[in-house]
Design brief:
Layout: E1 28-31, E2 34-37, H1 38-58, H2 69-88, H3 93-116, H4 136-158, H5 174-209, H6 215-245
Antiparallel strand pairs: 1-2
Main location: membrane
Protein name: ATP synthase subunit a, chloroplastic
Family: Belongs to the ATPase A chain family.
């Protein structure tokens, strides 16, 4: 629970140890030589299962005039398609709708699961359940996938000529352009992680101190913020991919 002692294991050593950064109490599973946060896998499986079940229900027995789950599914699909078209560009956006859609839906459902479900009421041998995006390992993984995707998009379209962007419009900008590419995944991962963690901490503290009506407006604000964070992440991912595909003159 929130009144438990929080651990801040900030590892200032190589990037390979970033996964050891942790905030809060965790349920550790030993897989070979590695320890993983078991509660993150449990909630991630729940989110993936929820999305899969809804997708099967919404896209079974499709009707010419959509209604119910099918209508909502098509609405989400059109929204993601429009987002991809705006950020990636009309020429290439259809290829990136599945990726951006997966990123957006996973983050959206993960964030809302933390805002709406009483995860903390479920007792574990150690640690506590929370939204998957409440763990830095999840957000870093999503950010790295985004980075790999825009590098892949640029190299696939332009070949090795993609790297000319680092010396444009002038050679002396090379360090700045390289630093920019390294800062993108950091910005994506820590923005999402920080906002979701802060929201759950604030709600948890208010529930512990004033358990009745005071936390409700904050919880509603958290629901809105969770949706915005999913939109921001997917929008930035699309913008980075669109930037990699764009022709620079």
């Amino acid at each position: 629970m929130i009144n438990q002692v929080f651990e801040n294991n900030l590892i200032l050593t190589p990037w390979c140890e970033l996964s050891e950064v942790s905030v809060g109490q965790h349920l550790y599973w030993q897989i070979g030589e590695y320890q993983v946060h078991g509660q993150v896998l449990l909630t991630s499986w729940f989110v993936l299962g929820t999305v899969l079940i809804f997708g099967l229900v919404a896209n079974t027995n499709l009707k010419p005039i959509p209604a119910g789950p099918q209508n909502f599914s098509e609405l989400v699909t059109e929204f993601i398609r429009d987002l991809a078209k705006t950020q990636v560009g009309e020429e290439d956006y259809l290829k990136w709708v599945p990726f951006l859609g997966t990123i957006f839906i996973f983050i959206f459902v993960s964030n809302w699961s933390g805002a709406l479900l009483p995860w903390h009421l479920i007792e574990l041998p150690s640690g506590e359940l929370a939204a998957p995006t409440n763990d830095i390992n999840t957000t870093v993984a999503l950010a790295l996938l985004t980075s790999i995707s825009y590098f892949y998009a640029g190299i696939r379209k332009k070949g090795l000529g993609y790297f000319k962007r680092y010396v444009e419009p002038a050679v002396f900008l090379l360090p700045i352009n390289v630093l920019e590419d390294f800062s993108k995944p950091l910005s994506l991962s820590f923005r999402l992680f920080g906002n979701i963690l802060a929201d759950e901490l604030v709600v948890g503290v208010l529930v512990a101190l004033v358990p009745l009506f005071v936390p409700i407006p904050v919880m509603l604000l958290g629901v809105f913020t969770s949706a915005i964070q999913a939109l921001v992440f997917a929008t930035l991912a699309g913008a980075y991919i669109g930037e990699a595909l764009a022709d620079h003159h």
